[in-house]
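Much of our argument rests on the idea that a fold can be written as discrete symbols. In the encoding step, the backbone of a single protein was reduced to a row of integers, each denoting a local shape. We regard such an encoding as a compact summary of how the chain folds. The record that follows shows the chain in one-letter code together with its fold in token form:
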Amino acid sequence: MSLQENGYEIIRGFYDYDRNLAPIFQEIDRLGLSMDPGFAHDRPSTLDPDQQSRLYGALRYLPSLVRLAANESNLDLASRLGLEAPAVMHCFNVRLDAPAKEAFNFHWHQDLTYLLGSLNSLTYWIPLTRVDADHGTIEIVPGSHRSGLFPMRYTGNGSPTRTQVMSPKDVVLENEPGPDDETIFVEANPGDLVVFSQLLLHRSSPNHSDQTRWTVQLRYADLMEQEFVDEGYPFGDRTNIFHTGYPALLEQRAAPNVQN
């Protein structure tokens, strides 16, 4: 597998669409129809901004999403990828990206920065619809996970409090990838699984198609990783990266890579 070297791997046909993914759309449509009788996941959204915000708030509670997060195949894969005691992080969600709505795209970031978890934690990025440079996807920097935590700054006033929850809009990289850096636009179909280190540098790409892009994000931490244990099992829903020892630890880990 290429996860250790490149920081990501695409596993084709990992999920059974009818069993694992179709129930998510069934529950999405039920919720959407309760807000607007013209709603359908495979048509342009008819929801107003308030309705869409409420839909987003409800999507993280979908029973089908919870079942997918706790799927034994996901946990077994996490074990094979090096997590000694895989645990589901409480930050799984469904994301929708409507055409020409670039304001909601995330800039370059590393998931660990705002979600925390163990230093070897993994993101499972699951397309429910086709993803590519036309339909929108994620753009990644292969191998960037080996450089540790990229220098960043908080975008708010002052310093974040210990209990302040962070999101990608709250931090920016000091130096983002430029035109000379190698990047890849992930291409995948429903049923494929894109798994990557939470240290992999990535960003959202625009949806240039006429269809809504739907994806699921699941995260897994390792309850036996010693740094995670020593830090008191930090999660992004109760603290943030600036109040952990992770930046210093990751700087030490990355030093040999920089020297070589």
About this structure: The chain has a mean pLDDT of 91. The chain is about 30% helix and 20% strand.
